[in-house]
Amino acid sequence: AQSVSQHNHHVILSEAASLELGCNYSYGGTVNLFWYVQYPGQHLQLLLKYFSGDPLVKGIKGFEAEFIKSKFSFNLRKPSVQWSDTAEYFCAVNTPGTYKYIFGTGTRLKVLA
Amino acid sequence: SQTIHQWPATLVQPVGSPLSLECTVEGTSNPNLYWYRQAAGRGLQLLFYSVGIGQISSEVPQNLSASRPQDRQFILSSKKLLLSDSGFYLCAWSVPASSYEQYFGPGTRLTVT
Question: Has residue B71 got a pLDDT over 70?
Answer without folding.
Answer: yes
